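TICKET: design request
STATUS: open
ATTACHED STRUCTURE:
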């Protein structure tokens, strides 16, 4: 089983949504992939209360996605997480490239960067919809690779 690692700042909102939605779609597509998610700077999430953002949980439920890690608290990214991942995706290049360069310098260039800003820049509805589109494309792309 291969692993995709989704990274965001607090592992509370965007990356958790991406992890759960990817796992749901990958299972339906019978991919040999699973997702995990981690945060690059949990200390910046002072308003994060509980294990997962209410916006992410609500959006997942509205898509009939069972939240496998509903009680899991946000987790900080470690070098071990990066080493275990077959694919690493940071949810917002503008925000996360500098964090990766600062905290995990050898890894910042080996990451696929998306452009999904945090809640103060882009509404949850728009951000989570963007992530959903990217996940759908990713599942299709990885499915195509497995067929080769």
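STATUS: resolved
RESOLUTION: sequence designed for all positions
ATTACHED SEQUENCE:
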């Amino acid at each position: 089983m291969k692993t995709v690692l989704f990274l965001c700042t607090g592992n509370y909102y965007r990356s958790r949504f991406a992890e759960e939605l990817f796992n749901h779609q990958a299972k339906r597509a019978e991919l040999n992939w699973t997702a995990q998610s981690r945060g690059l700077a949990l200390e910046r999430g002072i308003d994060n209360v509980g294990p997962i953002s209410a916006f992410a949980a609500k959006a997942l439920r509205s898509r009939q996605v069972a939240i496998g890690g509903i009680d899991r608290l946000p987790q900080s990214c470690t070098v071990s997480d990066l080493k275990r991942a077959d694919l690493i995706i940071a949810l917002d290049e503008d925000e996360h490239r500098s964090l990766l360069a600062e905290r995990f310098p050898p890894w910042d260039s080996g990451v696929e960067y998306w452009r999904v800003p945090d809640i103060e820049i882009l509404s949850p509805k728009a951000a989570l919809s963007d992530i959903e589109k990217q996940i759908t494309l990713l599942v299709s792309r990885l499915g195509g690779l497995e067929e080769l």
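CLOSING REMARK: Residues 124-147 form the longest helix (24 residues). The longest strand covers residues 2-8.
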